[in-house]
Design goal:
Shape: globular
CATH topology of the largest domain: Fumarate Reductase Iron-sulfur Protein, Chain B, domain 2
Strand content: under 5%
Number of helices: 10
Bound molecules: iron/sulfur cluster
Distance between the termini: 41 Å
CATH architecture of the largest domain: Orthogonal Bundle
Oligomer: single chain
Length: about 190
């Protein structure tokens, strides 16, 4: 193993720990995240974490998450709650000086985590959300609430739901897309991809 270079006690090459890299994991994430996910270019400056709008709730900051992806630390990354707390606000991506696009990396890792069978409350919510959109082509919020939170959640949110319906902000009846056939064709194409 090559000796670590140090500069006044700081590791100089901390972004690329060759001995810990797992090229397969990196390749997999890049292929999920498209060309924009230039993960290896990360210089660990922390600008992404500094601007992250949800950092105080995350167990892995975007900077750390990118480092773990570079190192191929599957377990830490796939189990991280940060994946599900990221709101895709793109602040990190717009600020990154190296074009890493951390938000795309997080989306890519999320897709891998779902395929790997990682299960938690967020993946359950995502699954119900997708199933309902597939069913009608458009989300019917009360149905989502009932399937996700059960009767208890329905009763808890009933007052708000009635207020929204009275103001015309939410229909009490399920809607449908204008052209369900076309919508299904688009879904079919997307799933083939
Ligand atoms: S801002 Fe970009 S280069 Fe800096 S730590 Fe975050 S991902 Fe890496
Ligand atoms: S996209 Fe996610 S990781 Fe990036 S700043 Fe927003 S919440 Fe944080």
């Amino acid at each position: 193993m090559a000796a670590k270079k140090c500069f006044f006690g700081m590791k100089v090459d901390r972004q690329v720990d060759g001995d810990k890299m797992n090229p397969n994991f990196l390749k997999k994430v890049i292929s999920e995240g498209g060309d924009g996910a230039a993960i290896a270019a990360c210089m660990q400056c922390g600008t992404c974490s500094g601007g992250c709008t949800n950092i105080d709730r995350m167990d892995l900051s975007p900077r750390k998450l990118i480092l773990m992806v570079q190192r191929g630390d599957w377990e830490t990354v796939l189990k991280s709650e940060s994946l599900w707390l990221c709101t895709s606000c793109y602040t990190c991506t717009s600020r990154c000086p190296r074009g890493v696009r951390p938000s795309d990396v997080i989306e890519a890792v999320k897709a891998i985590a779902i395929r790997e069978g990682i299960q938690n409350d967020s993946t359950r919510f995502n699954q119900i959300f997708v199933e309902l959109v597939q069913k009608r082509g458009i989300l019917f919020e009360p149905e989502l609430m009932q399937k996700y939170g059960g009767m208890e959640a329905m009763l808890e949110q009933a007052k708000l739901g009635i207020q929204l319906a009275l103001k015309g902000k939410m229909s009490p009846f399920p809607a449908k897309v204008k052209d369900p056939k076309k919508f299904n064709e688009v879904l079919e194409k997307a799933s083939q991809k």
